[in-house]
Amino acid sequence: MILSFLISPGNAFAENAVLIQSTTSTKNSGFFQYILPLIKTETGLTANVVAVGTGAAIKNAEKCNGDLLIVHAQNRERAFVQAGFGSNRKNLMYNDFIIVGPKEDPSQIKSSQTIENALKRIATDKHKFASRGDDSGTNIKELELWELTGIKPHDFSGDWYLELGSGMGTTLNAGVELNAYVFTDRATWLSFKNKQNFQVLFEGDTHLFNQYGIISVNPSHCPRTKYNEANKIITWLTSARGQEAIKNFKLDDQQLFFPNVISE
Description:
Strand 6 (about 130), helix 6 and strand 7 (about 160-165) form a beta-alpha-beta unit. This protein folds into 2 domains: about 5-95 and about 210-264, Periplasmic binding protein-like II (D-Maltodextrin-Binding Protein, domain 2, 3-Layer(aba) Sandwich); about 95-210, D-Maltodextrin-Binding Protein, domain 2 (3-Layer(aba) Sandwich). Helix content is about 35%, strand content about 25%. The protein has helices at about 25-30, 30-45, 55-60, 75-80, 115-125, 135-150, 170-180, 185-190, 225-235, 240-245; strands at about 5, 20-25, 45-50, 70, 85-100, 130, 160-165, 180-185, 200, 210-215, 250, 255, 260-264. About 45% of the residues are buried. The chain is of the alpha/beta class.
């Protein structure tokens, strides 16, 4: 199941609106509800957002269904640009990934020194692990981390490793219901309302860095893309004012994203 979400601060179906293909994590955190009105005020542009997994967002943009990408899978993003689908890429902001689970921490991952050790403990115990399984940026990163362990979680799919094919919020809800460990981005976790007895059990490893990139769709590939408008939004988001706005997006006084513009 792939979840999509359309939002704008004004007319969601305005013909001149810029279409942003983005991730469920940016939607679930409330980031777009916060930033789109600011974009409208600062640039005069209305933007609509389709929030799906990063893999789906990139595929949509490849099919010219979108003017702008905000996603988090750097290798996929660079391949998108190199293939001629995107005209440029910039680092926009970052946060980190975490593993959450029941406070009793059945596999004792809280005492792990590395992400590899934490995942190995879960696999050894065969404790339930709820994976998005949807080719999202979060899912892509999770599978990269399993590669570090030498464990192939797909071999245990349907046993302790549960591939849900769902967005982050739905996966977290399933994890809580099933008492399973969940790999999630921190912003979605902070805004998640159904925590019950779940806690952050593993964090801080450098491998858990979560970079978001911003890319305009290449008009050479998609002649009808709103290239100038998309780049006007990029220019503002990567300006000092835009980066300050990202920095000021908080929930319960906690900053959810950290600006770090780098052009490529």
